[in-house]
Amino acid sequence: RSVQCRSVSVVFPLTMMVTGMVGNTLALLLVYKSYHRKENKKKKSFLLFIGSLALTDFIGQILTSPIVISVYLSNREWEKVDPSGKLCEFFGICMTMFGLCPLFLASAMAMERTLAIRVPHWYSNHVKPRVTIVLVALIWICVFIFAMLPIVGVGQYTLQWPGTWCFIGARDQHIGNQFFASTFAVLGIFCLMTTLSCNVATIKALVTRCKKKTSTSPGHSSNYWERITMETLIQLLGIMCVLCVCWSPLLIMMMKMIFKDISAEQCKTSGTFPNEELQKECNVFLTAIRLASLNQILDPWVYLLLREILLQKFCQLANAVSSCSNEGRKDTQVTAETSEKQTVDS
């Protein structure tokens, strides 16, 4: 029975690793292909950000998933895989770096889009691919230095429930540990708020520009702006939903760990809990970290693959009820209904 339970448990990290690697590989190939198209010269900075995000998620999964799978195959006994404890520190560094980097890259992309929409002339003169490469490199370097702080004594990485992963320890009242854990949470919340604020500003600017184009340039130009607006709105809303759902629980739990006595470090890897409250706290924290890991799988789909493969079909339905679409609303609705009927018949 224990062997069967172990085989079922290992399916989750194995499935997440394979799915994430496939999605990020497709995203990297698509970015490479799009980057070298002449018509995408103005999108090179955005494509560099997406490629960097996909590469970051891909490397993070390659470095962490095999460790988790090995621990599950060892019946969740971390000591068998890591008798020296060095692997736990390495795993914690990877979790910190490849957790914060995507958040910073997401906020940088959100700012890039806001500048491109709200101040296009300044954007075209100042935001160049070389600047984007330097910014991405700075994000990687700064986050790596931050993740290495526990190695020099500021903070610590500890084994977490259910004994299959290591992360930032926050229970200890040592000022260095609290500083490191709280800084991680604050940086993550800052990135989330920046991304959400910039995306809201971009949505507002897009809707305003779309209304102006619709009223001043009826016809083909109007339909083009309606389509671009709807595609971008759906993508931005998807990004905001994914980031909030995946990262908010973990960041909230991190703050809770800092200010409350109960923390995930009190969880026993043997699976026994002194009280129901602690058991619930441990399960919530495990769910939160799994949601954050799920973000690495969803990133390439939300940022790129979803737009290329599915977004046009979504827009056919969305345009039918869009207040921005005045001309051709009936035609769009008929097209959407016909497409839906054909899908059902097939």
UniProtKB/TrEMBL annotation:
GO terms for biological process: adenylate cyclase-activating G protein-coupled receptor signaling pathway; inflammatory response; intestine smooth muscle contraction; lymphatic endothelial cell differentiation; negative regulation of gastric acid secretion; phospholipase C-activating G protein-coupled receptor signaling pathway; positive regulation of cytosolic calcium ion concentration; positive regulation of sprouting angiogenesis. This is Prostaglandin E2 receptor EP3 subtype. PANTHER family: G-PROTEIN COUPLED RECEPTOR FAMILY 1 MEMBER, PROSTAGLANDIN E2 RECEPTOR EP3 SUBTYPE. The keyword Membrane applies. Interacts (via C-terminus) with MKLN1. The chain crosses the membrane at residues 12-34, 46-70, 90-110, 131-159, 179-203, 236-259. GO terms for cellular component: plasma membrane. Pfam families: 7tm_1. It is a multi-pass membrane protein. The keyword Lipoprotein does not apply. Keywords: Cell membrane, G-protein coupled receptor, Glycoprotein, Membrane, Receptor, Transducer, Transmembrane, Transmembrane helix. Its main location: membrane. One of its GO terms (molecular function) is prostaglandin E receptor activity. The gene is PTGER3. It comes from Latimeria chalumnae. It is found in: Cell membrane. Residues 23-303 form the G-protein coupled receptors family 1 profile domain. It comes from the Eukaryota.
